[in-house]
Amino acid sequence: MKAAVKKRTVPRRLGAMVLAGCTLWAVALTAGSDTVVSAVTALRQGASAPLSALQWELGDFGPEDGLSAAAVLTLSESPLLLSARQSVAKLLSTETPEKPQDPVEQIPVEETPMDTAPLPTEEIPENGITAKTLVPTTQEGYTVSGKVYISNSTDHKLSIQDLTASFDAGLTDEEPQVLIIHTHGSEAYTPAPGENVDYCGNRRCLETRYNVVGVGDVMAQTFGELGISVLHDRTLYDYPSYSGSYDRSLKAIESYLAQYPSIHFILDVHRDAIEDTEGNEYKVISPVEGVGNIAQISMVVGSDGSGLVHPKWMENLKLATALQQTISQRYPTLMRPILLRNSRYNQHATTGSLLLEMGAAGNSPEEAALAGELFAREMGEYLLAKSK
Fold this sequence. Notes:
Largest sheet: 8 strands, mixed
Order of helices and strands: HHHHHHEEEEHEEEHEHEEEEHEEH
Number of domains: 2
Pfam family, one: SpoIIP
Distance between the termini: 93 Å
Protein name: Stage II sporulation protein P
CATH topology of the largest domain: Aminopeptidase
Organism: bioreactor metagenome
CATH class of the largest domain: Alpha Beta
Shape: globular
Strand order of the largest sheet: 3-4-13-12-14-9-5-8
Low-confidence stretches: 1-8, 32-83, 90-110, 114-122
InterPro entries: Spore_II_P
């Protein structure tokens, strides 16, 4: 008999607690009401709060940009994504693509590709290649300093203090100041349909308007417009033989440095080659309002990880970090993570040396040229301001 009483007592207590909670909730909502009408209105408005909270929890409620709570929380973990929230909101409304394979001739980079609709522009012809914007979605696996993400494949431990310290290289009044070279000069891009390209290999050609040498031309012109003297070596060191390209370009670099000791910055301009898991080529772009789609850029920094002498590799990494921090402030999705590699890439020849991947084989020559122009302008203005 006592057991039966206890079973009936539990539901009664729960009911009493629910009624008490509802009473307290109603009192709280109507505390500032001085009429029955205002009290009812307060109750009606307050009744939507639990539903809104439930919708938020389920991911069905969000700000005007349509991002769910999960998406907002993900964006908040990445400075690059958070600064490009509006673009991400548009991109996330499309079907999520598959994660691509590791870039050709690149180390694995934890970047998530997002389908990107080309921005309408009369200046950049569309080549029909699928466009994606690669951005880090987590800090895991990276060394992160501000807006800079570094993918480190070496055994070196990186500290924020070292990365943000001042670098050695700087502009002087002597000329030339910058050397642009192309170890793999025949690396080509994909023009718009209807343009016939005479390829001399896998996405390689000798016509400079279609390969990375053309990008170097634009960069040299941009530096020159800023008053920075540039020496542009347009030699194709990878043709006719790809093997030994770095040996040949190193001899040229050493010759230039001996003849022009005023050179303090060397930019070896390349392009990437990226495919998805099914072998489909795609291009990497950064939508820039008022300009269009610009090829994304990645900086590759060599080290002494291979066992070869390269004592000042950190100077180049500090330069890359400073440039990326500056550029990412204005163009959040333009720069892909910096790659720190074991190989030297001839960067031991002098401090101020960087290898630049200007877009990928799937990008159009115009998209890559815009990337070269923008990078040269940002780098030039940064160095000029630093030299004052």
